[in-house]
């Protein structure tokens, strides 16, 4: 199976859309799977159990963020290597990243399992939900290495230009999880009723099965990034790649940690208002995952596409990719926001029942928060572009400012007078700040001069560079360059 060149040669709008749709489909399946699990837990095990899973899922998101940066750095490096047609370098990156990723994920799993009760206590998890949350989360920690490696393989394939294969196996995982959830929660035949533990165990079985099937298929197809027996030496970590994974991956991982840790603190604020408010917030958050999915899919696709074009030296396409990503975010996220506003009570009733007091609270949360995800989607697309070049510190700083300097202090300080409303209004405030800072960095920052790996002597040069003032966009070559053109190394002079 050979690499696909469409990310660097195809028409930008159509290529980005076709690459984004399977990523969006994977995100939908993942969130739909979690939502169906929440329906089983909330409708049949009660609000305390739903509160337990809401708290546990915040922790899971935090732990996935710990290694997100490593897998994202791996994705970008592979994208640039594949874009530059250096497949030996791409395989070397895969080998080093695999070893590093496995060791890191196992360490996170062991640490989390041991300290589960302490973590939940620090979040002020309600007493009626705490024992259930401990049981659920500890099983999730056992599954964590498989979840990590599953996401690692999918992001590696996307970096290589393949977003369809991850979608097919996410579909398999989601179907297995949905089928196994009621069977393991309520029991059937010789299987005992496991309650909330059955929901977590279903996730473990589904992801492990899908991971094994995906790896088996890739070997059957002889994927160009797979390591065979004679290439196992590539699993020995390369120091230069390790340094780049840490130097670039750590800030990207910290971006997720900033988001997830602020969500943990926010959850502790919400928990102070009791189980009904926490359940309402948890259910509203389930809908938010769907609203954010188009932007996340487009942002990830923009990042993969920009990485390959940077690797190929096709800088004239980067700005157009970003603009198209912004347009797709506005259209798709805006449409979903409108739909949720139209069918708010009906969608919330799926999780809580139409007579639940928590529905009214969740409706008010959505009224205040939902529209702001359009703005945050713009931020995600801009981050997808700049991090594909290796510029990772500015997005981290922007997220930290918007969430820890603006959002959380606002929610805490005004909570004494506004109550829970201060929490809800902190979301749009943070989104306005983040998109303003991201747009400023995209316009004036030096992200175009960043590199995720040391530049090899044979690397293709960029078609223009940002002016020395770091203001403006890269200058294009004087001659016309079509979207289908690929520039050979060292054939284009830099325009100053």
TrEMBL record:
Which cellular component, as a GO term, is one annotated location? plasma membrane
Topology relative to the lipid bilayer, per the entry, is:
Multi-pass membrane protein
Which PANTHER family does the entry link to? MULTIDRUG RESISTANCE PROTEIN YPNP-RELATED
Taxonomy, top ranks, is: Bacteria, Pseudomonadati, Pseudomonadota, Betaproteobacteria, Burkholderiales
One Pfam family cited in the UniProt record for this chain: MatE
Query: CDD domains annotated for this entry?
Result: MATE_yoeA_like (cd13138)
Instruction: Show the GO MF annotations.
Output: antiporter activity; xenobiotic transmembrane transporter activity
Kindly state which keywords UniProt assigns to this record, in alphabetical order. Cell membrane, Membrane, Transmembrane, Transmembrane helix, Transport
Where found, per UniProt? Answer: Cell inner membrane
Protein name as catalogued: Multidrug export protein MepA
Q: What are the boundaries of the region Disordered? A: 463-496
Where is it mainly found? membrane
Transmembrane stretches, start-end: 58-81, 93-115, 135-155, 167-188, 194-219, 253-273, 293-315, 327-343, 363-383, 390-410, 422-442
What InterPro entries does the record point to? MATE_fam, MdtK-like, Membrane_Transporter-Flippase
